[in-house]
UniProtKB/TrEMBL annotation:
The name this protein goes by in its record: ABC transporter ATP-binding protein
Annotated InterPro entries: AAA+_ATPase, ABC_SmlMolc_Importer, ABC_transporter-like_ATP-bd, ABC_transporter-like_CS, Mo/tungstate-bd_C_term_dom, P-loop_NTPase, Transp-assoc_OB_typ2
PROSITE patterns with a match to the protein in the record: ABC_TRANSPORTER_1 (PS00211), ABC_TRANSPORTER_2 (PS50893)
Nucleotide-binding found in the keyword field: yes
Organism: Paracraurococcus lichenis
Pfam families noted in UniProt: ABC_tran (PF00005), TOBE_2 (PF08402)
Keyword Nucleotide-binding tagged: yes
Domain of life where this protein originates: Bacteria
MF (Gene Ontology): ATP binding
PANTHER family listed in its UniProt record: SPERMIDINE/PUTRESCINE IMPORT ATP-BINDING PROTEIN POTA, SPERMIDINE_PUTRESCINE IMPORT ATP-BINDING PROTEIN POTA
Keyword vocabulary terms for this entry: ATP-binding, Nucleotide-binding, Transport
Gene3D superfamilies noted in UniProt: 2.40.50.100, P-loop containing nucleotide triphosphate hydrolases (3.40.50.300)
Domain ABC transporter: residue ranges: 6-237
């Protein structure tokens, strides 16, 4: 039994009794999940991580690992391990000795330590590098050593604080795959803190989006990206346009929303049951669900929602083209048009356009 499931219940951390670094966090992380805490600097994600690790005590609330409250226990008794941003490898010890060191702290004999280190070295594919010093390794290899050193104590939960931030862009993407592979191989719960949206989305089974000490949304990557709960999550994850307007009608699972430019948009309620006429609401539509038409073309082609504007800027992105559309609305409006489709009849800057999408592609936000 691994027992690496985590439950955070009413978790609060205040350093000075006034500001809440963590402000009432409730969350369940299943055993063996890859969970990413995502949010801007200062949102409290590292503090949550440090409290799970046992490097910081909560002001209030419980942390259950494997069903047992671990508040007050040492990291070793919690069976958690932490991998730091800087890797914190001993410069004078070889790869093998760095990895074996964690077991010396736990009082294991030398033969046992080295045998365990060798097994772990194979697991993380560091075979040929076992006798090298950290300075003789690449950033990615150093990270693998740091991971092996954290994993050798057989923790139930491995905590990673911005593990990829020291690497360059290309290596970061490569190491992302490797972290995922290792997590699956070790079969333990990973809690990974990051402020990079794409990193969280690419890696996690469970993405937890935080702001100012609170969780806005926790769910599978695709749910958080494609069905953000509120404006904050939609804007932080990106890929969505968020518009604000007044509800003029609610019926049959949809709401009609009047925007400040007097256009009417139909959006699915998407479970927002309590919406009433007259209420101000946010609605989201994915940038890649927008079709851009020339106004002189067949307006009948425009199924459902229409917003009028003109092309403010065009940015080539490779697989798609990012078109910034200026509308009379205060919110920015962007369409991602598939590359081939865009170049069939390229829109030039200042061209008037109709941005259209179907009712079911826009959703009310909380
Ligand atoms: N030891 C401390 N003493 C006082 N305040 C602290 C301490 N550690 C963190 N804080 C404050 O708590 C809040 C949350 O910090 P935390 O490090 O958890 O955020 P974060 O989201 O991880 O940010 P970053 O990505 O910059 O590390 C911040 O306002 C921070 O200034």
């Amino acid at each position: 039994m691994r027992g690496g499931d985590i439950e955070l219940a009413g978790l609060v951390k205040s350093y000075d009794g006034l500001t809440m670094a963590v402000d009432g966090v409730n969350l369940r992380v299943p055993d063996g999940a890859y969970c990413c805490f995502l949010g801007p600097s200062g949102c409290g994600k590292t503090t949550v991580l440090r409290m799970i690790a046992g490097h910081e005590e909560p002001t209030e609330g419980e942390i259950l690992i494997g069903g047992r409250n671990v508040v007050g226990l040492t990291p070793a008794d919690r069976r958690t391990a932490m991998m730091f941003q800087s890797y914190a490898l001993f410069p004078h010890l070889t790869v093998r000795d760095n990895i074996a060191f964690a077991l010396r702290v736990r009082g294991l004999g030398k033969t046992e330590r080295l045998a365990a280190a060798d097994a772990m070295i194979e697991k993380v594919q560091l075979g040929e590098l076992r006798h090298r010093l950290p300075a003789e390794l690449s950033g990615g290899q150093q990270q693998r050593v740091a991971l092996a050193r954290a994993a050798i104590t057989e923790p139930r939960v491995l905590l990673l604080d911005e593990p990829l931030s020291a690497l360059d862009e290309q290596l970061r993407i490569q190491m992302r795959q490797e972290l995922r592979r290792m997590q699956q191989e070790l079969g333990i719960t990973f809690i990974h803190v990051t402020h990079t949206q794409m990193e969280a989305i690419a890696l996690a089974d469970l993405v937890v989006v935080m702001e100012k000490g609170k969780i806005h949304q926790a769910g599978p990557a695709r749910e958080v990206y494609a069905r953000p709960r509120d404006r904050y999550v939609a804007e932080f994850l990106g890929g969505q346009n968020v518009l604000r307007g007044e509800v003029t009608r609610v019926s049959g699972g949809v709401a009609v929303v009047d925007l400040p430019d007097h256009s009417s948009i139909v959006a699915s309620l998407d479970g927002q049951r309590s919406i009433r006429r007259g209420e101000m609401v946010d609605l989201a539509v994915r940038r890649d669900d927008i079709r851009l038409l020339r106004p002189d073309g067949a307006v009948s082609e425009a199924g459902g929602n229409i917003l009028r504007g003109w092309v403010e800027a065009v940015e080539y992105q490779g697989a798609f083209v990012k078109v910034m559309v200026k509308t009379p609305l205060p919110d920015e409006f962007i369409a991602y048009v598939a590359e081939r489709e865009f170049y069939r009849d390229p829109l030039e800057v200042r061209a008037p356009v109709l941005a259209t999408w179907s009712a079911e592609d826009s959703r009310l936000l909380a």
